[in-house]
Amino acid sequence: MEKRISGHTGLLALIGSPVGHSGSPAMYNYSFEKLGLDYAYVAFDIKEDKVKDAIAAMKTFNMRGCNVTMPDKVEAAKYMDELSPAAQIIGAVNTIVNDNGKLTGYITDGEGFVHNLRDHGIEIKGKKITVAGGGGAATAIQVQCALDGAREISIFNIKDAFFERTLQTAEKIRKAVPECVVNVYDIADTANLINTLKDVYEKMMKADILVDKYLYNKRIIRTCEIVDKMLDNDIRKAADEDSNNVTITYNVDVNTLTNQDVYVTINLPTDKAIIANNEQNAPYIFKENGTKTITINIRGYEYTYNISVKNIDKTAPKIDNVEQLNNSVTPQISDDNLQNVELKLDGNLKLEYQVGQTITTPGMYSLTAKDKAGNVTITNFIIYDTYNENNQKINYIPIYNVTTLKNLKNNINMKYTITKNNQEINENDYISAGCEMQINNKKYYLIVKGDINGDGKVTGTDLVKVRRYLIGLETFTPVEKVGAILSQRNDVSINDLAKMRKIILQ
């Protein structure tokens, strides 16, 4: 080892606790030597409370990556710059790759399993997978099979400490890969053993691929064929016949309905048919235009049906209690089926806004309400403020980001004119200190926060002017002073200087 370590040798590691028994350092270092790779691999005993520091050290030492073992897998995932799709679903990582300071976390158990199958000529996509067990390796396999296109995954597990986690994993898979059907069964429920054992056995036998926890730990993977092809063909024929008898009924004429709820009922032809994805058998209630895809399992085979309803809601949401120009507004939105509401200040989305909240922060706003039918209402308004100094009162509208008149028009569509030095500005001109907005014969000063010298930008020149003001070498007009106040005070302070410096650096 010491003969091949140099000043260029890259470092990789294993973190977890305990790790003294691990064979990983011997395996990796032997591989590096045989392959001629200039890396060294060591094991660090890192408990959960030190994981954050260990991840930071990876970046500091420019480590190429590391492996993660228990109990650090979940904690390490919190500090990744990016997670693989499988790691996102599971919420844990066992491998970290450092690409020039960007850390990506992976969970590789499932990938190894799928790659092994492909090496033996077995493809996951479109297959029905049966997994016995809900531990760490089994969870990774379930997730990776879903991501790689498995059609259905049946998970059989005893009700041990992992059963609730297995249910949670199944739900995460359904959300991440909705086209994959995931079922969880208690294989050891003796109370229902007689009624369920037959179904359990049939599902296992009809799996294209069977993963058994005990066999997997022994590194044995076997594939299953349908035991009785003749029986399977008979079942499929009966399922196809039943599928033609699935009916979808509506409580109203779907061709003439307008502005009313529609109740849709799925009528199944046999007790051997169930609606998949744990959905209830109707009625489904449509309040807005839309299409819902229903998967029905008939005798173990799946059939897809689309429920489509149109022409229900043609009325856009109504936004009330909003004056276009005021110093305070409390918008009210009337619509029973809102999809989302967005409030923008100077074109920037305010994620914390809630409907019914009073808005008092001065600036230029755009409020958008969209219902589930896709109807949209947009209302623009301005919150202005006043400033008094030496009995001189000014009404002003602050702008919190550098922008041109053209961009401003895209956000505010009310009627107004903007002048500077009594001349209307051009569309490509920057809004700047000294600009005046005329609305309904009233004058409001436009103030770009941080712009003191009137060029519409926040630069070092503005920073110098604020410094000079603070030490008494310069005076500000009321408009200039309002532009320099960034910390909600009555006068310019050292805090404003710090905030201006931050704006310039950004």
General description of the model:
The protein is an alpha/beta fold. It folds into 5 domains: 10-106, Rossmann fold (3-Layer(aba) Sandwich), CATH 3.40.50; 110-227, Rossmann fold (3-Layer(aba) Sandwich); 241-309, no CATH class; 318-383, Immunoglobulin-like; 385-505, no CATH class. It is built from 14 helices and 30 strands. A 6-stranded mixed β-sheet has the order 2-1-3-5-6-4, with helices on both faces. Helix 7 (163-176) links the parallel strand 8 and strand 9 (181-186). Helix 5 crosses helix 6 (136-147), helix 6 runs parallel beside helix 7 (163-176) and helix 12 packs antiparallel against helix 14.
> What is the molecular shape?
flat
Question: What structural class do the secondary elements suggest?
Answer: alpha/beta
Average of per-residue pLDDT values: 82
Q: Can you tell me the number of structural domains?
A: 5
* Straight-line distance between termini: 47 Å
Low-confidence segments, given as residue ranges, are 190-197, 213-231
Strand order of the largest sheet: 2-1-3-5-6-4
Report the biggest beta sheet as strand number plus sense, adding barrel if it closes: 6 strands, mixed
